[in-house]
Amino acid sequence: MSFSVTVCAAVFGGASAAFVPRAAHRLAVPRGSRPRSTCAGCAVTLATWVRAGATCDCARSPVWTWATGALVAGTLGATIGPAPLLLVLLPAALLGILLAVIDLRCLRLPDPLVALLAAATVLPLSAAAVLTGEPARLGRAALAALLSGLLYLIIALLPGAGLGLGDVKLATVLGFTLGFLGWPALMVGLLAPHLINGPVALTLLLTRRAKRRTALPLGPALLTGAFLGCLVT
Ligand SMILES: [Zn+2]
């Protein structure tokens, strides 16, 4: 473990995640709606996308957002060390945090953001596989993306699954990176979301904060699973 890489990654993660709340607030809108241009709390016009800390002057500073960014990025830095892979996974983790916050707010994973995550991971990892003379890695990543997408598509088609096509697309994109890292990473990435969402759903039911038919977002669990999978390298 490289101490300086860990600290640099954690600082990058925390500092960049501080910009997530404003962007998430503007993007967490129903399907087909334009991004929010006013604050949902005090109706003031949100002129820019860029604001560190709270969404608006009327909102509290969400400490957990930058704390999550610092923890996730710092852990990736500690596990991966000074390798080019870290430069791919850090921005991807930031996009993942943005997607998770939006999904928690409005049960949606906007296609343009999932597409951006795909571009930010598939393109550099494919180039890395070719440049390092490991095309087999590229094949494994593509196969893993296909398997992951197919598995979640089957789950989504089951009656009462409570899982949307946005989850299927995200699982496909995450499957590519996990497959690039290896089959054990993919296994963790596929299993962990269910081990996370099961107890969360049970806790919400027991504390009466959710009913049996309440829709729960799967995106945050998928992204957490992928993060844990990235640590199995
Ligand atoms: Zn406000």
Q: Can you characterise this structure?
A:
- One of its GO terms (biological process) is signal peptide processing.
- Residues 94-195 form the Prepilin type IV endopeptidase peptidase domain.
- Belongs to the peptidase A24 family.
- The protein has helices spanning 3-17, 20-27, 63-80, 84-106, 111-131, 135-157, 165-181, 183-206, 219-230.
- The protein has 233 residues and is mainly α.
- It folds into 2 domains: 1-108, no CATH class; 133-233, no CATH class.
- Zinc ion binds next to loops.
User: SSE string, helix = H, strand = E?
Assistant: HHHHHHHHH
Gyration radius, in Å? 18 Å
Q: How far do the termini sit from each other?
A: 13 Å
Strand content: under 5%
Structural class estimated from helices and strands: mainly alpha
Q: Which shape, going by the Cα principal axes?
A: globular
Low-confidence stretches: none
Portion of residues within helices: 55-70%
| Alpha plus pi helix count | 9
Could you tell me the number of beta strands?
0
Attached small molecules = zinc ion
The number of domains = 2
Query: Tell me about the biggest sheet?
Result: none
Average pLDDT, rounded to a whole number, is 93
